[in-house]
Write a structure and sequence with these properties.
binds zinc ion, alpha/beta
Length: 298
């Protein structure tokens, strides 16, 4: 089942784009192989507003946000997770507005409870003012968010559901233009799959990812998203059965038609699948000849 991706999204960075009467977006100037056209920063509300994922610490971007927020009161800064294209601008916006920041916790906080130390690729400086948990609400004048905890892409990933529009802001958990990267040790495939199924059980009318345009039919899209991961897992199992048993060999086989710049990330996703399969007792591993080899069990 092909995932119905939409890659037509194309808007200029820095513009304040109205999406619904309650919702605006400002695109940051940080396009790339992981960020697509850049970080889409959402502004929710009319006079009082919340910002979701302020974005990267780029001066021109922060100026564009201040311009878009001029004449309004920024009350809440919501952060889905602590990757460097999502949270760093929170500091400047907070200093400028006095608004508090809301998130699950600092980078790696979802894994810290398990004793796993995580440092890779995160915004280690971000510490939320208010720690939020699954099911809690954040209310402003004209908007109400429900926090939907969705670990997997990172261990601290939180989606935010806007009640007034039955809309869900999905951060990098679900993206409309691509699958997402699950990088161990902070990224966790078993948690990621559980978080996808959690969204499938909801009845959100629309998903607004950080990168790219919205997903207007969440149900079928999530079905395809979940099926894609299960298919990937099956391809990995088949590779092991065929004796293709190291991560570089598996990546070369499964991602032959994917942009080479994405192969290191693909290797992390394959590792994430193999960790899950190992935890489930379906795969074993041994180190020999300077490489880690995996094999099917049972
Ligand atoms: Zn991310």
């Amino acid at each position: 089942m092909a995932i119905p991706f939409d890659r037509k999204f194309d808007v200029p960075a820095g513009d304040d784009v109205a999406l619904t009467p309650l919702l605006h977006r400002v695109l940051a100037p940080n396009p790339g192989p992981f960020t697509f056209k850049g970080t889409g920063v959402y502004i929710v509300g009319k006079k009082d507003v919340a910002v979701i994922d302020p974005g990267p610490d780029i001066p021109a971007h922060i100026e564009a946000l201040k311009h878009a927020l001029a004449g309004r009161h920024l009350r809440h800064i919501l952060v889905t997770h602590t990757h460097s294209d999502h949270s760093p601008a929170a500091k400047a916006l907070k200093e400028w507005s006095g608004a508090k920041t809301y998130a699950f916790g600092p980078h790696g906080s979802g894994k810290a409870e398990e004793g796993v130390k995580v440092e890779e690729g995160g915004d280690m400086d971000f510490v939320p003012d208010v720690l939020v948990r699954d099911g809690e609400t954040i209310a402003g004048d004209g908007y109400t968010f429900e926090c939907v905890f969705t670990p997997g892409h990172t261990s601290n990933h939180m989606c935010f559901a806007l009640r007034e529009e039955k809309a869900l802001f999905t951060g990098d958990h679900v993206m409309g233009w691509s699958t997402t990267v699950v990088t161990p040790p902070d990224g966790d495939m078993a948690a990621y799959m559980a978080s996808l199924r959690k969204l499938r059980a909801r009845d959100d009318a629309i998903l607004w990812p950080t990168h790219g345009g919205p997903v207007r039919e969440p149900g079928p899209f999530l079905d395809a998203y979940i099926a894609h991961r299960l298919e990937r897992e099956m391809q990995i199992v088949t590779s092991l059965a065929d004796g293709v048993d190291t991560i570089p060999e598996i990546v070369a086989r499964l991602y032959a038609d994917v942009d080479k710049r994405l192969h290191p990330a693909a290797a992390r996703s394959v590792l994430a699948h193999l960790i899950q399969l190992t935890q489930e007792g379906r795969v074993g591993r041994e180190d020999r000849g300077g490489a880690t080899h995996y094999h099917l069990l049972g």
